[in-house]
Specification:
alpha/beta; D-Maltodextrin-Binding Protein, domain 2; 2 domains; 6-stranded mixed beta sheet; 5-stranded mixed beta sheet; 15 strands; 23% strand; globular
Length: 332
């Protein structure tokens, strides 16, 4: 287990100069927008294959640590077993140390498949170019999601926090909705039979529904803010652009903390190691079994604009027939 994943790497004015100022973030965001439509071309037609040669005896599927690394490694193994059985070759699942680790692994041939956020894929494609999108994820029927701003301080709210509510982007702007109307699976809100949530075999027990409120991002100035990593779309880039648009420098006007994962950002807010945090919606669920009051203690108060869902990319060095088989196996 890599314990560094949950450690907080605080950026201060000491040591090396801070990176990631407004101009850098704007340029990164522009690059993301320029390439984000790659997901709309997902197909199983094999693309620009290097040739349809013999299948390898095993392949490696890389993931980034959206959750605590050891737990995520356990979670992906059943999926790897299904793919192995469908393809007739061994599929090894690995969780890289961070987003850039997966980019490097795919670019250097150490991973054959990768589950990327849109910006991670953009970086990999720009840097190496030896991969293509196979599939774009759909979460609860939606091809997009958003980042969420969280706090442990109700005084930050412009409206009183309300339990069993969530924030969603609508045609009328950001609005507060009932948790059952939210796209993401919210904290403490059960779906399916016998009180079990989607994808869960056991009832998690009595968990407080998630709370939300509405708040102005201008209040974040001077706060300790827990991000995930500098190349995370929902965990840094979209939120940082929001701060810039609100007249806040995401480097110098706040104290940024890079936690290494979405669940770690929630933990930082829950434990008061940060005043504010950002994550995908709704990363609070990752703590609901261990910290049943996370829905009350960690309040969502703002969200980002919509972010395209993750993609599964494949190395173009894999035979075209294998890439097609992988696509078919995932969609089976």
């Amino acid at each position: 287990m890599h314990h560094w994943l949950l450690s907080l790497r605080r950026r201060t004015n000491e040591g090396s100069p801070r990176r990631g100022g407004p101009m850098r973030i704007r340029s990164l965001f522009a690059a993301l927008l320029a390439l984000v439509m790659i997901a709309t071309g997902c197909s199983s037609d094999g693309g620009a294959a290097a040739g349809d040669g013999t299948w390898p005896s095993e392949i490696t599927f890389g993931f980034v640590p959206s959750a605590e690394q050891e737990s995520l490694q356990d979670d992906i193994q059943p999926f790897m077993d299904v793919l192995s059985n469908a393809l007739g070759i061994k599929v090894n699942g690995v969780v890289t140390t961070d987003y850039t680790g997966l980019v490097t692994a795919m670019g250097t041939g150490k991973a054959d498949l990768g589950a990327f956020g849109p910006f991670g894929y953009t970086l990999a494609q720009q840097q190496f170019g030896n991969m293509e999108v196979l599939i774009q994820a759909v979460r609860y029927g939606a091809a997009t999601y958003h980042g969420q701003w969280m706090t442990n301080d109700p005084s930050l709210c412009d409206s009183a926090p309300e339990s069993a509510t969530a924030l969603e982007n609508t045609a009328k702007g950001v609005q507060q909705v009932g948790a059952l109307d939210a796209v993401a699976l919210q904290v403490g809100v059960y779906f399916g039979d016998s009180g079990k949530a989607l994808g869960e075999s056991v009832d998690a027990g009595d968990v407080s529904p998630g709370s939300s409120c509405m708040a102005d991002l201008a209040k974040i100035k001077g706060k300790r803010v827990a991000f995930t990593s500098e190349s995370s779309t929902s965990g840094y880039l979209f939120p940082a652009l929001q701060l810039i648009e609100a007249g806040i420098d995401p480097v110098n006007d706040i104290t940024p903390i890079f936690t290494g994962g979405h669940d770690a950002a929630v933990v930082a807010v829950y434990n008061d190691d940060a005043d504010v945090g950002v994550s995908y919606d709704d990363a609070r669920r990752s703590l609901r079994k261990e910290k049943t009051d996370v829905g009350d203690k960690v309040i969502v108060f703002n969200i980002t604009s919509e972010v395209p869902n993750d993609v599964v990319a494949a190395s173009t060095l894999l035979p075209a027939s294998l890439r097609t088989a992988i696509y078919d196996a995932i969609y089976a």
